[in-house]
Amino acid sequence: MPLQEYPLPPSLPYPITITSLATPVQSEITRNSPLLNYSYIFAVPKRSGNQNKGQPATEKRIGTWEANFEGTVVKWMVQPGATISRQSATEPVIAVEQSCSHEQQYGGICLICLQPVVDELSGLSHYFCA
User: Fold this and answer.
1) 3-state DSSP call for residue 107?
2) What is the fold, at CATH topology level, of the domain defined by 3-99?
């Protein structure tokens, strides 16, 4: 079975701090399964009458990274408490064993397992012509 490593998607609000791993090693994941939870600092837009003159107001927010892929979690390369910057987000954070590598595709469908093929980072279907 093919092993695939995945980085965090570029769309997350970096820098983020990993707060928990929602899926333990050896767990089966499907698309939209929660993988990890994170927190980040959000700059609150200034409004008229805002009492924080001169200093932008910030608040801590939380988010969840959900899977755009399927398989079994083999290894996590990140731990709770780690802070991830936009630059370091290109490094893999999870290794997943997949039942199919989707090497042969046509019209966004894998010709081996007959599952729709979705780009793991963008969530968009691939449309290749064989």
Assistant:
1) coil
2) OB fold (Dihydrolipoamide Acetyltransferase, E2P) (2.40.50)
* 102: its two tokens: 């989707």
Domain ranges of the chain: 3-99, 100-130
Question: Smallest Cα–Cα separation from 95: which of 72, 115, 65, 64?
Answer: 72
Tell me if the bond preceding 15 is cis, omega within 30° of 0: yes
Q: Sort 43 into a burial class: Cβ within 10 Å, 0-12 / 13-18 / 19+.
A: exposed
pLDDT of 102 > 80? The answer is: no
Instruction: Give SS3 for 89.
Output: helix
Tens-digit pLDDT profile for residues 39-97: 999 988 876 665 556 667 899 999 999 998 889 999 999 999 999 999 999 999 999 99
N residues, the chain: 130
Looking at this protein, which amino acid is placed at residue 77? M
Percent of the chain with pLDDT over 90: 56
DSSP β-bridge partners for residue 15: none
